[in-house]
Every structure is written in C-alpha cells, then in structure tokens.
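Model: Ready when you are.
Researcher: Fold this.
Model:
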Amino acid sequence: MSFLRQTFLAVGMLLSLAMSANPRTVTVAIFTLNDFHCGIVQDLRKEIPGAPWVVQTLDSLKSAYPYHLTLSAGDNFGGSFYYSATRNASLMPRVFCDMGIEVSVPGNHAFDDGQEAFARKWSDSDYLPRRWDFRYICANMRRDGRIPDSCQPWIVVPVPVDGGDTVRVSVTGLLTANTPYQASARKVAGLEFDSRYDRVLDSLKNLPGYGEVEEADVHILATHITAYNNNGKPVFDDPGQDALYSLDTDDIDAIVAAHSHSKLAGYIQCGRPYPIVQAYWHGGYVGMLLCEVDLESRRTLKVTPSIVPVNPHATLGVKAARLKAQIEEQLATTMFRGHALNEVLANAREDIPHDRTVKNVETGVGRLVTEAYADAYRCSVAQDGENHAQDVVVGISHFGSIRAGFYAGDVTVLDVGEALPFANPLKCYTYTGRQLKTLLDFGINRCRLGRIQTNGLRVEQDAKGGIRRIFARNNRGEEVEIGNKTRVVLVTDDYITTGGDGYSPSYFPENDVIAADVPQSTDAFIQYLQRKKEL
C-alpha cells in the first residue's frame, strides 16, 4: 500500500472518529470584509489586491468551509475616487454579489452621496444583479427617535447544513457615534447616532420579533467601530467604548470591528471575553470567525477568530475572471472631467507618502493638495490684470480628506482621485493672521482626527504647544511673517467649513467669503499636477 493511500486512510479514520464522537456538531464560517472603500482596481503598490482576487480568495475559503455567511462591516464604497467617477455605473453591486455579501453595517461613508442615495442601495446601477437583496443593519441610528426605513437593527440568516438542518445566524449592527464628525453635516442632518451601545442592544429586546435573535444559533455583533491592537491586546477607541466594555450577554458570540483599517484577530475583554476580527481595508484580508455549533443544544460552543490574506497573484476562476474583464473595460471607457482614468498627469521622482495611521504630521501629499488649492485661487485672480505678487495665499485641508500617497513613477487621474476622492467645492476667505492662528491651534493641537495640512506654513510653537509665530511664502516666493493683523487669503474645501472633522463653522465666517471662480478640490489638484509635470 502506498504512503499516500495510507495517509488518506488515516485521515479518513480520524474524521470518522471525530464525527462519531459528536455527529451533531458543525462549523459555520463567518467571512467578513470592512472598509473596502471600492477597492476594486488592483494596485499592489498600495496593497490593494483588487476585487477579482478577493472574490477568488473567498471562493477558495468557501470550498474549505461549505457552511458560511459573508458580511461587510461598512465603508463599502465611500472615500473612493473610482466609485465617484463611475457612480452612475457602479460595479459595487456586481462585486458584492460575486463576493456573496448581502448584509452590511453602513459605515460613516455610507452618507457621502446623501441619505436618499443611502436608502436606494445602488438600485440605480447598471450592474445591479437580479435577485440580489442587499440590506443595511444598524441598531443605534435614529431619525425622530426611530430606526430609519433604510436599514434594520438586525437580521437572522439561515445557513443550510447537511442533513436538511439549518444554522440560524443573527447579525446585529452598530455604527460609530463619531459619524457626525466624520461625514458631511448636511448629509447626516436629522440623524442621531447613540453612543450608549449597551443600552441600545438591551432596548432591542423590547422590539417585536427580537425572539428570532434570541433563538438564533450564532450571534454576531457587526460594528463600524474602531478597534485595534494595543501591545497585542485588542482595545476599542470610540466615544462609547465604556459601553462596549460593559457588554456581557448571550446574544453576542463574536464581534466584528472596522473603521481603524487595522488587522485584528483575538479576544477583547468586555464583561466577558469576546472573539473579535477586523480585516484591514481595501480587501487586503478576509476576516474569519469559525463557529462550532452543537445542533442538539443549538449552542455555539466555540468561536475561533482569524484573518486570511488575499492572494493577489492567484489564478482566477470563471466568475472572478469575468469581473476582472468588466473592471478593465470600465477603466478604458470611463472619463472624468474629460480625462481618462488611466491618463498620466505627472511623474513622481520618489514616493510621496500620506500614511493615514500617522495623523500628527504634515505629509508630502498634504502639502501638494493644499498648494493646489492656493494655486487654484491664484489662477482665478491672475486673469483680472491686477498685481497680486505680494499676496499670501494659504491652502489648508483637514487630514481625513486625503486618503493616499503617490508612489514613484507615473501619477494618473485615478491615482489623484484615490488620494483626494471627494471632489468638494472650494471656498476662499479673506482672513487675518489672528484668525489663522486660532484655526491652526485647533488643527495642530486639538483636532482628534489628524493634523491640519497646509501649503508649507512654518509654525513656531511655545513649550506648551501654543502658536507663537507663523511664516508663509507670498506669491513671489518670499518668506514673510504673518502678524495678527496681516491679511491673507485662505482656500479650503467646504466640508471643513460646515463642521467636518470637528472644525467649528465659526472659523469660516460667511461674511469673509471671497467670490472666486475656482474648481472643485479634485479638479484643482488634477489641473495643478498637469501644470507641474514633475513632483
């Protein structure tokens, strides 16, 4: 008898013994994605494997674990220029259908197109598959004291297993209470996001139909809430984190986290230890919760959390290959403001970083973006024939609007859009040095979501971090000090002026607005790079 045949027989005997010891136990795999941000196009420089390879990895995992459910923990499409450029023909429904995702927490970027678009759930896309029933779940979002019709607090999904039995998996959703500070204020107007997560979950028990959650065999709490590893220990970072740490209920078997773009698989200590996963972002990893379920007692005996890297070099099956062809066609035919998505705008002599996890610095791309804002204003006034050579124009940006850096080599329209995806209107203000000092103090010392980005301001601070002196370059390239009464022009996008990233609208008085014919933020960046050519 060959060694290989002996090995197969031995494995078969072990499997038979295991099945006879507990023939009514099955393993149900919960596969998770989070913060996909429409990471459809492969870009290995940015660790984006591409949607076809995520589909292929999921299909491989599903072959290994035939009893499964796939879900998303939010931020599926927002923060992506590719999505913005292809919005009316978005591939996202096709992508999620191919991945098997029909359930998702919203994510703060779910409202980038407004609440009406959120409620439509991509129903107007040319790529909407038939019989694809996509649902948002969120228990702590309220309008007028009620959960909006656009989502539901939980869902119970039946997972068929051998023998004609079914494992029922309940998924309850929560969205970070930070959402009003990380979404356009006007686009979430009227919505409230309760940070008392423990009370929210407890209150669900009073709703009609909650019995189906209690009777489910597996209970997943899917959240778009920040968790990360702190010295190897999973921790939360959220306004409602104390409420999360107090959770101690049989209606939760495992937790899915998101929002921090971290890799996380372990156990987080709440009222009891809960398995928790977070699968990085852009589909770089798949989260996996292996749930061992006793079909006799209808109990989850054990949950094992892990994350699985997506292989960006895997040979694609028929389904994934078809998706790849659709993506390539769309890249070749989609235009943005008259520019093909693959058009080369400039050449970067070296990497120009913007690491979103290092939030307390000005970055190379941050300086380029804000210089583009300032340049857009200069171009608009250069046409009036007056001499503005000594003017000081300050471009600023909140940290969160800039999503990625550039790598050495060609910089395309798609690269620019992925770095600055939101294409918000630019606004120009007549500012004083005193106003600038107040704005910089908040942006440098007090904004929790990242340091303010500027076009090369030199700021001197005292021992306590206070803003002591500010230096800028005028249109002649001369460095000048900005005193309290110095007049400058400030250019920024309107997201920050309406409360974005926690900036007070009072920093941007409407009476100080300058009427200027300037393009939107992403357009301004494209035009600036076209003129600059070399970076």
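Researcher: Now this one.
Model:
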Amino acid sequence: MNKTLILIILFVYSCKPEISNNIVVTSPDDKIQVELKLDQGMPQYAIQVDDKKLLKSSALGYRFRDQPDLVGPFQLVNSNTEMIEEDWEPVWGQEKSINSLSRMIKLELRERLVPHRQLNLYFRVFNDGVAFRYEIPKQVGLDSLFIIEELSEFRFARDGKSWWIPGSHAFDSYEQLHKVSRLSEIDSANTPLTYITEDDLYISIHEANLTDYAGMTLKRSRSDSLNFLSNLVPWPDGDRVKTSAPMRSPWRTICIGRSATDLLRSRMILNLNEPNQLSDVSWIKPMKYVGIWWGMHINKYTWVQGDQHGATTENVMSYIDFASEHDIQGVLAEGWNKGWEAWGQEGALQLTEAYDDFDIGAVVEYAKVKNVTFIGHHETTANVAAYEHQLESAFAYYDSLDISAIKTGYVGAIKPSGQFHYGQWMVEHFRRVVQLAASHRISLDVHEPVKGTGIERTWPNMMTREGARGQEWNAWSEGNPPDHTTILPFTRLLAGPMDYTPGIFDIRFDRYKPDNKIHSTLAKQLALMVVLYSPLQMAADLPENYENQPAFQFIQDLEVDWDETLYLEGEIGKYVTIARRHGSEWFLGAITNDEARELEIAMDQMVRGDQVAECYVDTEDAHWDNNPYPIWIGSYKVSPSDTLKARLAPGGGMAIRLRPLTEEEMGQKLVSISDLRQDQEARE
C-alpha cells in the first residue's frame, strides 16, 4: 500500500511539465516582465522592461562543500502566483506612509535525480524593479548546509555607464570614492552598483533583508564582460554561508527607473523586509545632534585623556548648553571611556568605565534637565570577540543611566583574524547588537557597518549607519571631491539612511590643519542636511563655528522626520534637488558637482497659497575651492505659480525653508522669490 502510494506520487511528479518559455511574471503596471524557464532542467530567469531585454537568461543555484551542487536538473512540482499589496507606516522615515505593490511567484522545484532535493524560488515584480530569493525547505538528508558559492547571475543585455566601488578582496570597507566606468570594465563591485543602460534605463543592483547570511558582492564572469556573478564574503575556511534547512536567502534586488530620481523614489528594499517587531517604539526618536567628534579629526581634541581631551565633563556640558539653546536634540561624546591610549591592544576599551575627568552620571542628569539626549559611544576597534564579551554589561550600563541612543564603531580589521566586516559571522553579530539594543530601548548609529538592506523596517531602532566615505575624510586625506555627494544619493543611500555628518561651517579649518579642507561651499553644507537623509542628522562642526553665524538658523529650523519627500531633479554625479515636508513646512536642498548650475524649480508641488521662502544660497562669486564662504540669505514671498530661479556655485548648493506666513508678514510686502536670481547677481 505505501509502496503503491510512493509510486503514484513519483508518477505525478514526473508528469509535471517544465516551466515553459512563455511563463512570464509581470509587474502590476505590466511594464516589467520576468521570464522563467528550466533550460534542460536548469533554472534561469530573464528580465524585459518596456519590451526591451534588460537581463538575458541568467542562471540560479548553489554549490555546497560536502554535497552535489543544487543546480538541477529540476522538474516543477508546483507554482503559485499572487498579487501582494500593502500600505504600511514606518516608525520614522522619508514619508509617513508607504505602499507596496508587487506580483509574486513561488516555484517549487525538485531534482529529477536522487536524492530529489527540493529548492524553492521566489520572484517579486514591482513597478520599480525585480527581486528574487532562494528557499531550501526542511527535508530528509539536508540538515547542515555549507554553501561555498551562490550561483546567481546578472547577465545584462546592454553596456552602460556605471558608478561603483570595488568588491575588495578584504571585504572590509565601503569607504572609497566611486569609480565611473563602462559596466563591462568592472572587475568586481560592492553593491549598490548603479548604472545607466545605453537606452537610458537607470539600474541599481543590491540586496534586501540580509539575515543570517553573507553579504553579497559582484564579480565579472571571465567569459562575458556583461555577466556578473554573486560573490559572497567568505568565512576563514572558505565557506560562504553556514546554515541549515529550512533556509531563506536575502532578496537579490534589481531596481529599475526611467530617470535617476526614479531610483530615489523606490521603496522596494524596505518593502522586502518584515514588519516592525517592536510593540513599543515611543523611545525611538529621530533627532539632530552635535558632539565631541569633529574636533578630534581636526586635532583640536583627543580621544585619549590628557591636556586636549575632548570628552570632559565641563566640555560635554558646554555642548549640552549649546544644543539646548539652539533646538538640537542630542549630544554625542566619543572618548569618555577608559582605554583609548591602549588602542589595538586586547580588550583595551572599557565600555562601562569613565575617564577620571568625565562624570557620566552628572552629564546624563544635566542633559535631562536641559531636555537633551545624551548619545553614548561604543568603539570596538573591530575586536568583536572582546566587544561581545562586554555587550550585555555595556548595554545594561547605558540602560541603567537611561541613555536611549548610542553610536558604535568597528575601525580596523576584524578580530578574530580571518573574519570580515561583511561576512556571515559579522552579519549575525550586527543583528545581535540591534536586537540587544532594542531590549534595552536603545537606538543605534553604526559606523564601519555592514551595508543597509532595509532591516530598519523590522528593527526601527537601527536608525542610521555610515557605510561609505564620509565627511571625516576631508580632515585627513585629499578629501571628498565635489561630485562625491552628488553620487551618494544614487548609490550608497539607495541602501538606507547614512550618517555622513554634514554641516561644517569652518570649511578650511586652517587653525588646526592648514593642508586640509572641505570640498564644498557653505551653502552646500546646509543643503547636504536635506539631501543626505538620516533620521539622526549631525551638525558636525564645533559649536563656536556656529555661534553668531546667520546660516546656522537653517540647522536650528530643520526637521529630520518627514511626512513627504519630493525628488525634484537629479543626474548621477552632477546634481540633485530634494524637498521634504514636515507638517506645513518644506525644506529643500540642492547640490551640484564642481560645475556651476542654473536651477529652475516650479513651486506648485510644495506651495499652497502664499508662503515665505527662507533661502540660503551661494553668492555669484562663491566657489568650493577658492571662495567657499559667501552665502546669500534672504526671505521671499512664494506662490504656487512661481518658479524658483537660482545659481549654484561650483561645488555649491542651496537650502530653503518654506513656511506659512506669520500674521505680521501677512500685512507686509515681501519681495517675490522670482527676484532671488537678481539678488545673487547684486551680491557679487
């Protein structure tokens, strides 16, 4: 009886047809098509956009260390297609509500040959891209899995211009300037990898929901310069992923736009993550902050206790006073804890012991009285084993002090030796830290992190991260060129919020480091606080450089949690203009590369009735290299029918606050915003 049943089941399986070439999954608007097939039993996918081929047939599968490759030949056991639509509200973000609409197919595959292993493939097709993932269900004979290669291919049909950072063999740093080349000239790349096809599609390759898995880089095929292969960051023994069935991979994402700003609008990566896991989120607070940080990079202060120590009780309290007076919600202190003088030594940094000149209890209480959040700091020196030994006590210590936000850092090569920042072991570590922080009601700003993949939807206390070449490089290197920040929105920031630490007003800081400088104008530093999104946004300069500076008013007024965002214009590496709304006010930021640029922006998307535009814009003679400071500040009347016309200096920018008129202003005659360009010229 049982043998007969088994024979019948096998017969049914054998009669299942292969996926035929005409099985296509389309986006809800029918403009993107994913073609799925079994080529001699081997699973492949291809993508068309607007009836043009984007990806040729690309292979899928796995190689294991201790068993045969899971690549086929397969037969189709079952398939299921469904429309998925969801409206959800992030705890914080670039808008208050997000719509997720996609068509998903699940393919259940079974090997034709013994041992008849099972593999499920999921494809979700959105109006703005395609995502796929693997699932190895629980089954007899598949317990422990040692993946040595994920065989996902991205076989592009056409070449194009690309922006990328190398998929370093060290797998340890995203802090590099983006290279610009033909797609076919890339050898290896970290993601997001962004490129424009020859027929003007804007594409970004990345991943979503990186959980219990290695980070993905891309490497070029030896046989096809437009074929890129998944290249997972390894363990010391060469395994890429150590896991067990059931297992699900992260989503591999191909974001697709018809313009550069389409990439900025996409929320596909967030939508591919699970909903918020925290029942109480009242303690998670987006905020602006200042801190003891930039002073160390320009050599005014030291992390180590001594004559120039930055994180003293007196100094941090002065930062708290400044924050309280200027509507800044947080103050960060780095270098308050013992051990910085023993940098690099085993277990040097003591995360619960303060230097003698820093009374953390008094500082935290002082901050509370001033209604300012004290932001703690965990630097690990990348000695992750030592950090994990202190994790519980360090978070419990901050919890006992009622500290609700911390910055973590992982500078250097990971210890234990052989592990990498973006390998599975570290991915698991980062997730443990996020979850432990949540259990202590602590939010995180992670530096030297694993890249963002949208987990802030699931764990909204994971608020921001570095993961790119940030502002500090201007303090001790050749600096970030003016086009760097016009590339980041279309590359790194597609992965999630970034703590770039903008807002430097002392552009040249000659008093401390005469051979270094910021490669932007003052107006651009304001604009970056709008353009480079972070729910924890640092005004990074020294407080004394903000005092008596009229441009600082924009930072005081700035919000960091948004009801709505408009991506008004942009081209990768050239310019970008973004407007964000909080309540009845809009904040606009526009930046350019090293070329001057004329701006024309219609106001009808933002303005309802007459409003006031408080403008901070480069003067006619401003220039990032030889004249970065001149800034024109003026208030103008603006109506929905107006068009803003302004000039951005080379390496420059513009920041605007749009707000309702006050009762007093309603009776005044204000200059129209159409005269802003004339005012710039008159300022020369």
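Researcher: Key takeaway?
Model: Residues 42 and 72 are 5 Å apart (CA to CA).
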